[in-house]
Amino acid sequence: NVPLMRVKAQQDSWVQVKDANGAVVFEKTIKAGEEHDIAGTAPWKVVIGNAVAVKLLVRGESFDLQKVMKGSTARFEVN
Fold it and tell me: What's the count of helices (H) and strands (E) in the chain, helices before strands?
């Protein structure tokens, strides 16, 4: 069973995920080397700080954070 999202931090990074109603379903500073699965129902609004140091899988597929980064922060939606 593949999680909707998996985040892996290579350096300390901040991750926040909100559901369609704006409720926070995940918010944490993840430490270098940590990995977290995030389950639930999309659509989600996602913000990742220090995104250059994060590997993200969405439904098991690698997600290119470079495309949604401004500075060091990535903001995007997962549907």
Answer: 0, 9
- Of the pLDDT bands very low, low, confident and very high (cuts 50, 70, 90), residue 41 is confident
DSSP 70: E
**Over 17-49, what HEC string results?**
EECCCCCEEEEEEECCCCEEEECCCCCEEEEEE
User: Cα 54–51–31 angle (5° rounding)?
Assistant: 55
Stated pTM of the model:
0.92
φ and ψ at 30, to 5 degrees?
A: -95, 135
CA distances from 43 to 11, 32, 50, 53, 79 (A): 27, 27, 23, 24, 4
Number of alpha carbons in the 13 Å side-chain half-sphere of residue 55: 10
